[in-house]
Amino acid sequence: MIKVDISNVWGEISLPDLLAVEHEVAAAHQTLTERTGPGNDFLGWLDLPVAEETEEIARIRAAAERIRSNSDVFVVIGIGGSYLGPRAAIELLQGCNHNIGKGKGDPQVFFAGNGLSTRAWNELLRLLEGKDFSIAIISKSGTTTEPAIATRALRWLLERKYGTDEARKRTYAITDPCKGALRQMAEEEGWETFVIPPDVGGRYSVLTAVGLLPMAVAGIDPMEVMAGAVEAKQLYDVRSFENPVWQYAGVRNLLYRKGKAIELFESFEPGFKMFGGWWQQLFGESEGKDGKGIFPVTAEFTADLHSLGQMIQQGERNIFETMVRFAPPANFAVVGSDYKNLDGLNYLAGKTLDFVDEQAYLGTLAAHVDGGVPVMTMEVGELDSKKLGELFYFLELSCGVSAYMLGVNPFNQPGVEFYKRNMFKLLGKPGYES
Ligand code: PA5
């Protein structure tokens, strides 16, 4: 079970404060599970964890095997909730440099269509030169501009390289089961398709083919991820403050009431960056509406202690932190001894890197708490595929409870449309002239 240590928030809130909101946390949890709140037609994610392999997951495995055997590179096209989950999963389990040295048998996984940068596009073209590749197009609506542009270009690349028939076999679409431009395109072109259920919003879709197909191509067993999510569904259903979901949701809500409007979600693992990005979208899009919401920011320590550290320590006191800790890996690295000791590091000789990391964590924690920053620590334990599934579900549940406590609909994102409308007008999209 994931543990949430709240002992370092007591300078800002008190136990009676927390107990006073118990009924609010309980009500928010109940609203979610009884599906009585706003956005309740988007609660399909609650039922995504499955203990038995479904026909869809079997097809995901088969497709992943095919891609692994015939492709050096797998390009995943998508943006927002149609992209962050799989990237977060792969980088957290395999590191940010997971693509180095990979090819057929264990393909590289690149992401496209998550921006409009020509430099990024040219870089992808260079990376694909001389490589066998397949693509997955992920879009629930099928009309999102960024992935649509990337889809056009990558389809043509595939067709020029392989001809129509083989290109068709190398193209996969993950989208709504019935409607939308991508569904229609996939059916007309004869691509293999996987489903984003209509009642699952993008940022809650990581346990569908959106997350599972790219994970499987990267060698992550979808059923192991599911096993963790299944366990989480049961573990975090407890209706009391023994439930870490309640602790996390209750404390962050109280801190917000005390003027802590920014949450820094951080870890001492570089592979965590994209996971932090996934969390940022989950909480940002779910809570940031009606003039309310905790601003979610992710950081990687110790690197960001050398950029954000000053602000955290002595800037405006409107921040709280959630530090995510993982158990150390089995293989360790040791600081060596140098007879000259010009760098003065011999006092650490023989110590493991993990020991040094642990002291950095403890030192940071003490400094930030002293500086008036409440800190929650999320102890995740061993990091593997199963734990990842647990973590995804734990955070989705925490987010739903948090947003209902805040009094907002966690499952819509009306504000995201504003930039699109302006962009469409500027681009001259038919229907957006005025
Ligand atoms: O969470 C969400 O719903 C959004 O981030 C969407 O996933 C994102 O805008 C992409 O939309 P679509 O999958 O329709 O292309």
What does this protein look like?
By secondary structure, the protein is of the alpha/beta class. It folds into two domains: 3-36 and 227-415, 3-Layer(aba) Sandwich (Rossmann fold); 46-220, 3-Layer(aba) Sandwich (Rossmann fold), CATH 3.40.50.10490. The protein is built from 15 helices and ten strands. The chain has helices at 15-20, 22-33, 55-70, 84-94, 118-128, 145-169, 181-189, 209-217, 222-235, 244-257, 273-287, 309-314, 353-370, 385-406, 416-427, and strands at residues 3-8, 73-77, 108-112, 133-138, 171-175, 192-195, 262-267, 295-300, 319-326, 375-381. α4 packs antiparallel against α11 and α11 (273-287) runs parallel beside α14 (385-406). The longest helix has 25 residues, at 145-169. It starts with a strand and ends in a 7-residue tail after the last helix. The model has no long low-confidence stretch (mean pLDDT 96). 5-phosphoarabinonic acid binds next to loops.
How does the SSE layout of this entry go?
Blueprint (H helix, E strand, L loop, with lengths): L2 E6 L6 H6 L1 H12 L21 H16 L2 E5 L6 H11 L13 E5 L5 H11 L4 E6 L6 H25 L1 E5 L5 H9 L2 E4 L13 H9 L4 H14 L8 H14 L4 E6 L5 H15 L7 E6 L8 H6 L4 E8 L26 H18 L4 E7 L3 H22 L9 H12 L7
Parallel strand pairs: 2-3, 2-4, 4-5, 5-6, 7-8, 7-9, 9-10
Antiparallel strand pairs: 1-10
Helix pairs in contact: 2-14, 3-8, 4-8, 4-11, 9-14, 10-14, 11-14
The structure holds 5-phosphoarabinonic acid (PA5).
